[in-house]
Design a protein that fits this description.
Blueprint (H helix, E strand, L loop, with lengths): L1 H18 L4 H10 L4 H25 L5 H20 L6 H21 L2 H4 L8 H17 L4 H13 L3 H25 L5 H46 L1
Helix pairs in contact: 1-2, 1-10, 2-3, 3-9, 3-10, 4-7, 4-9, 5-10, 7-8, 7-9, 8-9, 9-10
């Protein structure tokens, strides 16, 4: 029954991570409730993240909504950041970090409502490559040590710095997360912080959820995604502050 619950949570988190973000806010608490320490849960969750993003990237690329050149460019600083983030995970004041992230997510929610065109229409922008690379490096650091909620930051900054709509934002997000997750997962494995069986079952569920999420994102488009992201951001932001 526990493994069935893990599988079902994988479906939910895979779908949510692909269409918006915050799926790890479902899986991490569940894994800890099942008896894992937060460090083991954090590492085990990376198996699901890896598998769901393989499926999602394949779907987005197949439907030609993945900006491949941009994704390859910014995957590099994000991957470097993830190495730093994973290496320093034990030294971070997680309580303070959670409060900061909660506030930032709620600010994002305001932008989702007040600036709809920012999310639903592509805009030509003059891109500062070095600034954008630095931002993606910082997001990679965050993703390396906790992952939960990292998708919201990718969505927000790809919209503000690159001008993509939400569908392409999501495609870019899952590609970059896929690029750095194997590195983080390897570090967790080498430090004995992964439970393989639970991670595989969670990953199988998340692959199914990710496939559903990618098809939903492509079919429904940016307007639908904006409201789903808004709801996910609000719930995630409040959960971080409580």
């Amino acid at each position: 029954m526990l493994y069935i619950l893990i599988f079902l949570s994988g479906i939910a988190s895979g779908f949510l991570n692909v269409v918006a973000g915050g799926g790890s806010l479902i899986t991490l608490p569940l894994l800890t409730m099942l008896g894992m320490g937060i460090d083991i849960a954090n590492g085990t969750n990376r198996i699901a993240i890896l598998l769901q993003n393989i499926v999602a990237v394949r779907n987005f690329h197949k439907n030609r909504v993945l900006p491949v050149k941009t994704a390859l460019l910014y995957a590099v600083p994000a991957a470097i950041g993830s190495i730093v983030g994973t290496a320093i995970v034990v030294d971070i004041n997680k309580d303070l970090l959670k409060k900061i992230v909660g506030v930032v997510l709620l600010i994002m929610a305001v932008f989702l409502l007040s600036k709809p065109k920012m999310w639903t229409e592509e805009r030509k922008k003059s891109v500062n490559v070095f600034l954008t690379a630095f931002v993606f490096f910082c997001i990679g650091v965050y993703g390396g040590f906790i992952q939960a909620g990292v998708g919201f930051f990718f969505i927000f900054f790809t919209a503000t710095l690159l001008g993509f709509d939400l569908v392409r934002n999501n495609a870019l997000k899952v590609f970059i997360v896929l690029a750095y997750t194997p590195i983080s997962l390897l570090i967790f494995v080498l430090n004995g912080k992964v439970e393989p069986l639970a991670g595989l079952i969670l990953g199988l569920g998340s692959m199914l959820g990710a496939s559903m999420g990618a098809r939903f994102a492509i079919k429904k488009g940016a307007n639908w995604l904006r409201f789903i992201v808004f709801a996910a951001v609000i719930v995630s932001g409040i959960s971080y502050l409580i």
